[in-house]
Amino acid sequence: MSRVSLTQYLIEQQRLHGHIPQELRLLIEIVARACKRIAIAVNKGALGDVLGTAGSENVQGEVQKKLDIIANEVLIEANEWGGHLAAMASEEMDSIYVVPNRYPQGEYLLLFDPLDGSSNIDVNVSIGTIFSVLRKVGHARGVAEEDFLQPGKQQAAAGYCVYGPQSMLVLTVGDGVAMFTLDRETGSWVLTQDEVKIPADTKEFAINMSNMRHWAPPVKRYIDECLAGEEGPRGKNFNMRWIASMVADVHRILTRGGIFMYPWDQREPDKPGKLRLMYEANPMAFLIEQAGGAAVNGSERIMDLHPTKLHERVAVMLGSKNEVERIQAYHREG
Ligand code: AHG
Ligand code: MN
Ligand code: MN
């Protein structure tokens, strides 16, 4: 069997299909290399002294784990000197990180959730890294937070790496979704699935059920109908999964279908949701749509939303197309 590496896949995207410029290819390769380093740190666990909390909080008031900080540093160090980026933004940094003057500045912007699923680090459950690439619009010198505030449909590339039983990199450059598995013996990302497609129908949902009493009526209706099973209006039994790492839940959905929801709830009515638009929802929405699924915040398509701030939150409902459209219809009905 001939093996296709990430580099080969990207060169093909660049040369044969003209989908990506060389700078974007090199940028993705650097992100993939950084994820490899994070995968190695994750695997070491207690042996590498990477578990536990760091004793600090991020801008969102969440306690930072050691791995949140390590992964953030790895991504910054790997990406700041390449010459492809103007700036980076991260869940773990209050404001944007502009590429220092000593390095050349490029035209791309990189956003990431360095370590997704922090609550799973210490219990040895799958976690991940999510990333999104935007183009800096306009060629004026300098870069500011406003340059990042673009709708998700303008992403040039997006992906995640899941650190689970296998480390896998899942990527889109706007031409479908490809999955790569890390070969630890050769150190390369090997293409293991191309043209990923999500089945339009599913019998599996993912939501944190402990928040049920706080949900809005359309979400409650949707889940109630799933729970009613064969005897209910859906006429079929549903299964539930909740890993509490968005990366791992989305990976399952890309692999076998399903719907994932982190909806708005009434505990904090002014907060649209828990997840962040720019570096969690948008990249996942891009991947899901590229695999034939859908991603909405309730009534609207996530990738059409115009962000107003870097750490903006959003309600997220994504996955198998027919299910997402159903829940969208419930929201539109009010
Ligand atoms: P992060 O670790 O980057 O803060 O993200 C955690 C997110 C997401 O990965 C997951 O789907 C969700 O939080 C889990 O939330 P609950 O703790 O409510 O289950
Ligand atoms: Mn996250
Ligand atoms: Mn995180």
What are the defining features of this structure?
single chain, 334 residues, alpha+beta, 8-stranded mixed β-sheet, 5-stranded mixed β-sheet, 29% helix, globular, binds 2,5-anhydro-1,6-di-O-phosphono-D-glucitol, binds manganese (II) ion
What gross morphology would you assign?
Answer: globular
Helix content: 25-40%
Query: How many helices does DSSP assign?
Result: 7
**Strand/helix succession:** HHEEHEEEEEEEEEHEHEEHEEEH
Enumerate the spans where pLDDT stays under 50 for 5 or more consecutive residues: none
The main β sheet shows up as: 8 strands, mixed
Portion in strands = 15-25%
In round numbers, the mean pLDDT is 96
Bound molecules: 2,5-anhydro-1,6-di-O-phosphono-D-glucitol, manganese (II) ion
End-to-end Cα distance, whole Å, is 53 Å
Oligomer: single chain
Walk me through this protein's architecture:
By secondary structure, the protein is α+β, with helices and mostly antiparallel strands. It has helices spanning 6-15, 22-44, 66-79, 217-227, 246-256, 277-290, 321-333, and strands at residues 53-57, 63-65, 85-90, 97-98, 108-116, 127-135, 157-163, 167-172, 178-183, 188-193, 204-206, 239-240, 259-262, 275-276, 294-296, 313-314, 316-319. The strands form four sheets. Strands 4-3-5-6-7-8-9-10 form an eight-stranded mixed sheet, with helices on both faces. It has a five-stranded mixed sheet with strand order 12-11-13-17-15, sandwiched between helices. A hairpin with a 5-residue loop joins strand 1 and strand 2. Helix 2 packs antiparallel against helix 3 (66-79) and helix 4 crosses helix 7 (321-333). The longest helix has 23 residues, at 22-44. One manganese (II) ion binds at residues 68, 91, 113, 115-116, 118.
